[in-house]
Design goal:
Elements: E1 10-14, H1 28-39, E2 46-51, E3 63-66, H2 74-92, E4 96-99, E5 112-116, H3 120-123, H4 130-146, E6 149-152, H5 155-165, E7 172-174, H6 188-198, E8 204-208, H7 217-225, E9 233-237, H8 245-253, E10 260-264, H9 271-277, E11 280-283, H10 292-299, E12 304-307, H11 312-316, E13 320-323, H12 328-340, H13 342-356, H14 361-376
Helix pairs in contact: 6-9, 7-8, 7-12, 10-13
């Protein structure tokens, strides 16, 4: 067991996946890293961010070490993570290292904490590019075994980590993501002006997330096609990911080119306006580690339809309408209820607002620091 480490703990966080690209790379894991760097120092943690050539951390009390390696390219990042990162960690003198996205250095001069977001690459391997699947499978398994502690972003993700990676449940801590305060109900005049500026209809169903197979967008589009409300639109906000050709082919096959809208990637600072402008939110994903768009939508006062499996019941709580994501008729029926039952929409809106209020980045930071202390004290949860 290591000698006791005083307060504050000094953690070095691999922030090479911080991205300013207008694409899916600036979505989930980027937001997680960014908010850790923003809130951990406020909670009393000393933080050094290990950065690539282009990542921009939040301002404040974060120390930075920037590498010239072109780690925006996956192959270069893999080499940096395993061969260069140990030297960078030694340079920081940190008490521990945090791999915030599945992987940490297998050889390091300090204890390691790793965050597991989901194990979709093991549950749905056919939905991933072969090289990406191989990297995640091999290095996630090795990293969580090497780590002192493992952070899972939901109870479901913790159970998956134990079951699929053979990690002791006592080694895994559940720490939910927070919701940025910008996700909130906005003034009606501001929302109307945004809707007019974007040419959006008065009523539309919104999805937010990367366009990729696991999000189940083909079935969502097929369900939407069954709705006959004139003027209703389906707006699919998100950057193009991988294997997304079938999504666009489905729209053409069903003749929905005028009813399904693809705004593309939307910067995080604009998302609250999209949520506020919508009539309902649909997120019937096949599998999630948590499902932050569900909670963001709820925080903006938007009624939510989502999947009844994986972690999504945790994400939605009592503020969501759960449906079988494999059943197009069930998705269509759920959307019809959300769009036609005003009392139900208001009930889900109020429950969703209450549920989302429990997820703050201050809480995430405090619970993450508690994990760091367990790691530096030698607690492996065996």
């Amino acid at each position: 067991m290591d000698a006791a480490v005083g307060w504050p703990v000094h953690v070095a966080i691999n922030a090479h996946l911080l991205s300013g690209d207008p694409s899916y790379r600036s979505a989930g894991v980027h937001q997680y890293i960014y908010h850790l760097l923003a809130y951990l120092p406020e909670a009393g943690c000393r933080v050094t961010a290990l950065l690539g050539p282009t990542g921009t951390p939040p301002g404040g009390a974060v120390q930075t070490i920037r590498s010239r390696w072109p780690t925006g390219r996956p192959a270069a990042r893999v080499v940096w993570e395993q061969l260069v990162q140990p030297w960078a960690l030694r340079r920081t003198g940190a008490d521990l290292a945090h791999g915030p996205v599945f992987v940490g250095p297998l050889v390091a001069p300090c204890p390691l904490v790793v965050t597991v977001h989901d194990l979709s690459f093991l549950r749905f391997p056919h939905l991933f590019r072969p090289a990406n699947r191989l990297y995640l499978t091999l290095l996630t398994r090795a990293s969580v075994r090497r780590a002192r502690r493992v952070i899972a972003v939901s109870t479901h993700a913790a159970e998956e980590t134990t079951q699929l990676l053979g990690v002791s449940r006592g080694k895994v801590d559940v720490v939910y993501h927070g919701v940025d305060p910008k996700f909130r109900p906005l003034p009606p005049d501001e929302v109307r002006a945004f809707r007019a500026h974007k040419g959006l209809p008065d009523r539309f169903v919104l999805y937010v997330g990367t366009l990729e197979p696991r999000k189940n967008l083909v079935r969502l589009i097929e369900a939407f096609a069954r709705l006959r409300e004139p003027g209703l639109r389906l707006v699919l906000v998100g950057g193009r990911g991988w294997y997304d050709q079938e999504v666009f082919a489905c729209v053409e096959r069903l003749g929905l080119q005028e009813r399904v809208v693809f705004p593309g990637y939307v910067p995080a600072e604009q998302l609250p306006l999209w949520y506020n402008a919508a009539t309902a939110f649909a997120y019937p994903s096949l599998y999630e580690g948590f499902g932050m768009p569900v909670v963001e939508a709820q925080a903006c006062g938007l009624p939510v339809l989502t999947s009844d499996r994986s972690s999504l019941p945790e994400a939605a709580g009592e503020g969501g309408m759960p449906v079988d994501p494999y059943d197009v008729a069930a998705i269509a029926a759920g959307l019809h209820r959300l769009l036609t039952d005003e009392a139900l929409r208001e009930t889900l809106r109020q429950r969703g607002l209450a549920h989302a209020s429990h997820f703050t980045w201050q809480k995430t930071a405090a619970e993450t620091i508690a994990v760091y202390h367990r790691a530096v004290s030698g607690d492996r949860g065996q």
